[in-house]
Amino acid sequence: MSAGTRINAYFKAKGWTRFRFQQEAWRAYRQGQSGLIYSPTGSGKTLAAWLGPVRRALETPADNKGLQVVWITPLRALANDLATNLRDSAEALDLPWRVEIRTGDTGSSVRSRQRQKPPDALITTPESLSLLLSYAEGEQWFSRLHTVIVDEWHELIGTKRGVQLELCLARLRRWRPDLQTWGLSATLGNVDEAMEALLGPHSKGIMIQDSQPKTTHIEAVLPVSAGRFPWSGHLGLQLLPQVIELLENRNTTLLFTNTRAQAEQWAEALGKARPDWTPVIDLHHGSIDQSLRHRIEEKLRDGALRCVVCTSSLDLGVDFSPVDQVIQVGSPKGIARLLQRAGRSGHQPGTESRVVCVPTHAFELVEIAAARRAAKAGLLESRPPLRWCLDVLAQHLITIALGSGFESEAMRKEIESTMAFVGLQDMQWQWVLDFITRGGQTLQGYPQFHKVIERHGVYRVEDRRLAAHHRMSIGTITSNTAMQVRWLRGGLLGHVEEDFIAKLRKNDRFLFAGRLVKLMMVQDMTAYVQHAKNGARTIPRWQGGRMPLSSKLADSVLALLGQSRTGDVPDPEMQAIRDLLTLQSRWSRIPDPSILLCETVKGRDGVSVFCYPFGGRLVHEGLATLLAYRLTRLRPMTFKLSVNDYGFELLSKEDPDLDETLLSQMLSTQNLLDDLHGCVNTTELARRQFRDIARIAGLVFQGYPGKNKTTKQIQASSSLIYDVFTAYDPHNLLLDQAWREVLENQLQSTRLARILECIETQTLVLTHPKRLTPLAFPLWAERIQSQTISSETWKERVLKMIATLEQESQERPGVRKARVLTGHGR
Amino acid sequence: MKSTRTGHHQELGINCAGETLILHSQRAIYRPSTRTLLVADIHLGKEAVFGRAGLAMPYGIHPSNLLRLSQLISWCRPDQLIVLGDLMHTAPGPDETWPNEFLRWLKTYSSMDIAVIAGNHDRMRGRKIFGSQVRWLHEPHVAAPFAYAHEPMSYKGLFTLAGHLHPTYVLASRGDRLRSPVFWFRPDSAVLPAFGAFTGGYNISRIPGDRIFFIGTEEIIEIPPY
After folding, report:
1. Distance of CA A714 to the CA centre of its chain
2. Cα distance from B194 to chain A (closest Cα, Å)?
3. Alpha-carbon torsion (A329, A330, A335, A337), positive or negative
4. Is A383 contained in some domain?
5. Are residues A368 and A247 part of one domain?
């Protein structure tokens, strides 16, 4: 029986249809092509990619030995399920392949066995692949490799892990020039670019799309009385009764939230409202201990749960067939993201998926309606691949120097064959070589940074201790600084970002892993907690909440608001907030794509300028900083800034006397980059970014597993690292990179420039409402977390603060009258 | 209180224990009556410790600390330099260059009396490398009406000048917030800010009767009680 017939029989026996895109993929594979397969989740992409090499092995048994297929997965948690699936189909087709996993979780005996005798197909992560390249026998090991399949490429593209993978693939292609690379991706706005990044620029590939995209229904839970629905907030618990009703009507629901804090709150609220559901409701997020998460996933797969409250931790891959409903709490943030979450239900080819959105404040209703319209129109976000990450390059060069070693010119050609480094400048290349061989200009005094040694034109790592250090650091791209959370009396609860714990004081209460706990002490990267009784508590804000509204969705929101100005919009969500929009229009104006709405409001704390460009919170952070910076150059002033996805607020004590003309001038694209540099320099952003870069580039050694003290010492002083480098090694290209990353990732300078260009074509409308408008109110509520921009000198600021404090203390009864500033001797 | 400016720095004269002390914005105190320059917590070699832990610190902190010290010396031309503890951060490692650079620096000031109150970081064998060029003093060292110490203490009715805490203060009012190192004067003692360029800080809270001098890059401003 031919291989093709066997595959037909296999599909028949399973009762599956062979989709057209699968057949296209198999055909293209047989022709020796590479490419990208994209379609919504759960549509048979795995088999489309896998059966190509399987059939090849069945047809040419003589070649069938050694490691032939590498399957890259972004999450090691997905590896087990994947291995089962791949093994099942290989077995059913009588292909005696060993399919094995190699990730950070793989034990050392298995690892060394794999190095002795490689499996036929290997499932691994980008980090583990990189590690394999650091061994001298790498070339030999991969000598029979003919196919690499990259799963969930949309998750990796646009990240440094993606860059790392691009570099590793370039190395594999150098060893195996005929290597076939296939990517699997969800639908993106930039699939062409995604394929180019995967296969390398200038390479030919074939794009295969599932021609029958499945339909997704996007609905909203509408508040009963829209008038009393909150104008701001991020919990959305007012709609709990409706959500419980939704849960009752279905078997298994995934309830997605945007932040872990929100997930904790919802799990607690559901548990309180329906104590009888306690055994069938679980909580799943990135801070929860991994073994616990695995148990929840298993129960989910068995259909034993009514609801799992989760964050992006369940966004990816695994097939939970019993899930028949998806609920999204809070802003969907992006169209592709919402569709992907929706795709977690009806995770079978052909079934339709449905997502119910729960707004947490009034304007999110607009976002939901806008997302539905955009999804219908096929507008999806792009994920642009990263360029010129010198930190990743430094790490990769050391990896290769550890393995086979490299020669400068040939290596540079290999590096430039990736999209991430095409057009790398001589100066950058020389700098990186200098950095890995001599530690750059300023680290010459430290022998531990002379990692790579050049002899007769070949770069190698000779010191075995350095080699061990480096291998341990390879995985660090993904790890952020996590602290353990433990019971004081012993027992691990999970992990949480250091930033969060740093904001707490002893005895502060917070919800963690579904329990109310209080912080007892922090020691050696561990937060010790105890059970807490009910009472006031902090609602923790984890990083997840900072994700900006995508520009596609923001544009769609603005367009929808514009439509509501001129006519009645039939979407039920828009009907629900009609009263609120009327209020906005009465007090100020409803924004639309042709205008930029600004409002000034006088209040107790000073004069506020509100501005609504609808650019997403990161762009607004940049824009607010930029505007404040430019205004402060006109005359010395101090502003307090706050931002959200719709706009930003500048608050100052004195009236900045703004009019339309001045505001338009201040928001021009002229000197954008220079001005941004000018103000980025004054912020903490670059400092934080540099910390990660320093770690990836190997400037900071994270320490041996378990030796947490070193890490802590390093973290404690991390804010100093950036300052010290800026002062003593200003030409370090990694500093440059930190700036670029801040500009691109944190401030989203490209998007910022686009918004500014757009503003130049818009009419600026400045209104002077008597009180906070519905659009301004959420910004006012955010103010507590905001930052300060000032052009006043240190001295002016100090004197001004002293004056305010003295004045306030005089206003307070019972406080002793302040002494004059230029005091007298004792 | 008299305040003067020299170049980009500011000095501020205050009365303390019947004498005049001059506070300098480079985080030092000059005592004219005995021609003594006082600094605290230089923490030489701290960057090397980070280097040993795998955290790269570029070269240059060390020379800049010494340069600042030299500038202070040429400003007041003292007979005596007293370090109020923690001259060094740690014992020097085998291949580190900073001890030799410091020795060379010491030689250029061989006519000046350089004395160090042994701080908690100095109580180690490594300090012997500076030989007789540095005079080690026990805590507290009496120079009436003052006592020099590393850790703040009260001593026999004398006014103590100390370091150790690296005091900083957070000034915050509506809409603005600044944190800076401070000179912290208590009724019976004063704590100097850390001199070293690469040292952290400890936020103090004010008790009635305290005087706090806030230090910017170029200025000193007293924060009145509020």
Report:
1. 24
2. 15
3. negative
4. no
5. yes
Q: Are residues A107 and A234 in the same domain?
A: no
Q: Would you state the structure tokens that stand for residue A818, as one six-digit string?
A: 């302040």
Same domain, A232 and A204: no
In whole angstroms, how far apart are CA A386 and each of A186, A392, A658? Answer: 19, 11, 39
Q: How many CB atoms lie within 10 A of CB B1?
A: 13
By CA distance, what is A466's nearest residue in B? Answer: B54
Q: What angle do CA A722, A725, A727 make, to 5 degrees?
A: 110
Same domain, A298 and A364: yes
Whether B58 contacts chain A with CB within 8 A:
yes
Distance from CA of B60 to the nearest CA of A (A): 6
- Give B-chain residues touching A470 at CB under 8 angstroms: none
The pTM assigned to this predicted structure is: 0.73
Mutant choice from A466, A702, A704, A794 vs B, greatest count of B C-beta within 10 A: A794
CA distance A653 to A637: 9
- Band of pLDDT at residue A764, cut at 50, 70 and 90: very high
CATH number at residue B92: 3.60.21
Dihedral (Cα; A477, A483, A485, A486), 10-degree rounding = 110
Range of the domain at B67: 2-223
Residues A712 and A616 in one domain: yes
Residues A532 and A627 in one domain: no
- For chain A, the domain total comes to 5
In a domain, A676, yes or no: yes
Counting the structural domains of chain B, the total is 1
Q: What is the dihedral of CA A549, A551, A556, A561, to 10 degrees?
A: 70
CATH number reported for the structural domain that contains residue A198 in this entry: 3.40.50.300
Same domain, A366 and A459: no
Give the start-end residues of each E strand in A242-391. Answer: 253-256, 281-284, 307-310, 325-329, 353-358
* Contact between B57 and A724 using a beta-carbon 8 Å cutoff: yes
Higher pLDDT residue, A515 or A457?
A: A457
pLDDT in tens, B170-215: 888 766 778 889 999 999 999 999 998 777 788 888 888 899 999 9
Q: Residue A382 domain-assigned? A: no
Instruction: Specify the amino acid at residue B126.
Output: G
Does one domain contain both A184 and A250? no
As for the ipTM of the complex, it is: 0.76
**Which structural domain range is residue A244 located in?**
216-376
Going from the C-alpha of B153 to that of each of A37, A683, B102, B184, B189, the distances in angstroms are 73, 39, 30, 14, 7
Contact (Cβ atoms closer than 8 angstroms) between residue A169 and residue A145: no
What does the DSSP 8-state code read for residue A310?
E
Query: What is the mean pLDDT of the segment spanning A292-316?
Result: 86
To the nearest whole Å, the CA of B216 is away from the closest chain A CA by 7
Q: How far apart are CA A624 and CA A241, in angstroms?
A: 39
pLDDT digits (tens, 9 = 90+) for A549-571: 888 899 999 999 999 988 878 99
Residue A416 lies in a domain: yes
Under a CB-based contact definition with an 8 Å cutoff, are residues A67 and A118 in contact? Answer: yes
Regarding beta strands A307-310 and A281-284, do their DSSP bridges make them parallel or antiparallel, or are they unpaired?
Answer: parallel
Number of A–B residue contacts, CB under 8 Å: 140
pLDDT tens digits, residue range B133-148?
889 888 899 998 999 9
